[in-house]
Amino acid sequence: MTAADREGARTEGARRLNDLLGAVVVLADGRQVGHVNDVRLAGGPHLQYYLVDGIIVGRRAEGSLLGYDRREVHGPWLVRVLVGWANRGAGYVPWRAVRQIDWEGARVVVDRVDPLEDGHAAL
């Protein structure tokens, strides 16, 4: 199956999470607050039961938290420090605070951006 075939096989209105990554995030008043750097899921125990819980917003579209936004992730201290520094100021938007997604324009309108805390960790 080619990429075009897979694209055509999507159901109407269905999107991939990857389509959201890098999108510009703006508040309802139009102020840009960052880009979608990650998507948090909740649910389980099987993949089909997961739902989008929220999005992680950062200053750079290419940023990645590599899991280091979660306290239980341990690794080389230098990597942890560099990732933390590069992503300082990252925030969390609960899915219920997402007002609109312009998929073609890669733009997400949100009500608010909360501080990123350990409680927003992926399962």
Essential attributes:
123 residues; alpha+beta; seven-stranded mixed beta sheet; 2 helices; globular
Short description:
The chain has 123 residues and is α+β, with helices and mostly antiparallel strands. It has 2 helices and 7 strands; from the N terminus they run H-E-E-E-H-E-E-E-E.
CATH architecture title of the domain at 16-62 and 91-113: Roll
Q: How large, in whole angstroms, is the Cα Rg?
A: 15 Å
Q: What is the CATH fold-level name of the domain at 16-62 and 91-113?
A: SH3 type barrels
Q: What gross morphology would you assign?
A: globular
The major pleated sheet works out as: 7 strands, mixed
The rounded distance between the terminal residues' Cα atoms is 32 Å
String of helices and strands: HEEEHEEEE
Describe this structure in words.
This protein has 123 residues and is of the alpha+beta class. The chain has a domain of 70 residues: PRC-barrel domain (SH3 type barrels, Roll), CATH 2.30.30.240. 14% of the residues lie in helices and 31% in strands. It has two helices and seven strands. A seven-stranded mixed β-sheet has the order 5-6-1-2-3-4-7, with no helix packed on it. The model has no long low-confidence stretch (mean pLDDT 77).
Topology of this protein?
Elements: H1 3-9, E1 24-27, E2 32-42, E3 51-58, H2 77-86, E4 91-94, E5 98-102, E6 107-110, E7 114-115
Parallel strand pairs: 1-6
Antiparallel strand pairs: 1-2, 2-3, 3-4, 4-7, 5-6
